[in-house]
Design goal:
Blueprint (H helix, E strand, L loop, with lengths): L4 E3 L3 E2 L12 E6 L5 E7 L4 E6 L4 E6 L5 E5 L5 E6 L5 E5 L4 E5 L5 E5 L1 E2 L2 E2 L6 E3 L5 E4 L23 E4 L6 E5 L5 E7 L4 E6 L4 E8 L2 E2 L4 E5 L4 E6 L5 E5 L2 E5 L5 E6 L6 E5 L5 E6 L2 E6 L10
Antiparallel strand pairs: 1-3, 2-26, 3-29, 4-5, 5-6, 6-7, 8-9, 9-10, 10-11, 12-13, 14-15, 15-16, 16-17, 18-19, 19-20, 20-21, 20-22, 23-24, 24-25, 25-26, 27-28, 28-29
């Protein structure tokens, strides 16, 4: 329940996880969701936004007061989100089948809602490259039923990973080899993109050049449980939301450690003044864990 503290377990499977530690407990900050997703931390205002997809709302966790409030009660089944270099939230929306951005004047701008003349499937997660391009995954989870969106037939022939180039740039399909592309994050200073495939499940890596993916993606890890959201730390390690908690992979894909949790984890985010607070959305609950790990800077 909210306010409860669970023992924090740092399960090392490889010496590359040996420096990972932190609080001796994991705090449950909120437990009133149906399927929580899409955490994104705003460093200037010190709060976290996260989605409760089936309840079609976005919640706001204030880091200073530790209070959770409803930020948007008609979110269009918003899912994954991030914060760009200008401090604007960018998010994926199942209901609108689009990627959108909250401008500083409070208006919403559509970043992408179609490709090749057809509507997107149901954009799932998004990351902003250091060059300003918006990348997102487009599986079909939001249209397979009315639970996380509106049931509909897919219009795209593939479940792709897309890139919107710069401010007002065109949209391109970067690759379409995955079954259900889900989480997305950049590593190596933006020179690599990592994608989780929840359908396989697996983690894929592709090199990134000036015009997008520079070569074919390579599968670097396969999993025995479903993988979802992904974040990168300052050492290049991959932190992945999984059915049994948070898993950590080395940049080469080797599974090196775990932080088990009692609920299926959908996504995670590094926040706090030093980016060493792990915010974890896990089924019904938001968990908070201060660690010795720092999340890599994004969108700078």
């Amino acid at each position: 329940m909210a306010g409860d503290r669970l023992p924090a377990v740092y399960e090392a499977l490889d010496e590359r996880f040996a420096d990972v530690a932190g609080d001796h407990y994991v705090e449950c900050a909120f437990d009133g969701g149906r399927w929580l997703e899409g955490p994104a931390y705003h460093p200037a205002h010190r709060f976290l936004l996260f989605s409760d997809i089936p309840n079609e709302r976005v919640l706001r966790y204030d880091e200073r007061t530790r209070r959770v409030d409803v930020f948007d009660d008609a979110s269009g089944y918003a899912n994954g989100r991030t914060v760009d270099a200008h401090g604007r939230f960018v998010w994926c929306e199942h209901g609108g089948r689009r990627v959108a951005r909250l401008e500083h004047d409070g208006t919403t701008r559509v970043v992408a809602d179609a490709f090749d003349g057809r509507r997107l499937n149901s954009p799932n997660d998004v990351a902003v490259h250091p060059d300003g391009a918006v990348w997102f995954t487009d599986p079909t989870y939001g249209i397979v039923s009315d639970y996380e969106g509106d049931e509909a037939e897919p219009e795209q022939p593939v479940r792709g990973v897309y890139r919107v180039a710069g401010e007002g740039g065109g949209i391109s399909l970067e690759f379409d080899e995955l079954d259900q592309p889900n989480g997305i994050a950049f590593g190596d200073g933006g020179r690599a993109v990592y994608i989780t495939d929840s359908g396989t499940p697996a983690i894929w890596r592709a090199p990134v050049g000036e015009e997008g993916v520079a070569d074919q993606p390579v599968k670097i890890a396969e999993a025995d449980v479903v993988y979802d959201g992904i974040r990168i730390d300052t050492q290049g390690r991959l932190w992945v939301a999984a059915a049994d908690g948070v898993r950590c992979h080395a940049p080469d894909g080797t599974l090196i450690g775990r932080i088990p949790l009692p609920e299926k984890v959908a996504n995670l985010e590094f926040g706090g003044a030093k980016r060493n607070v792990m915010y974890i959305t896990a089924t019904t609950s938001l968990y908070v864990l201060r660690t010795t790990v720092r999340g890599a800077a994004r969108a700078v």
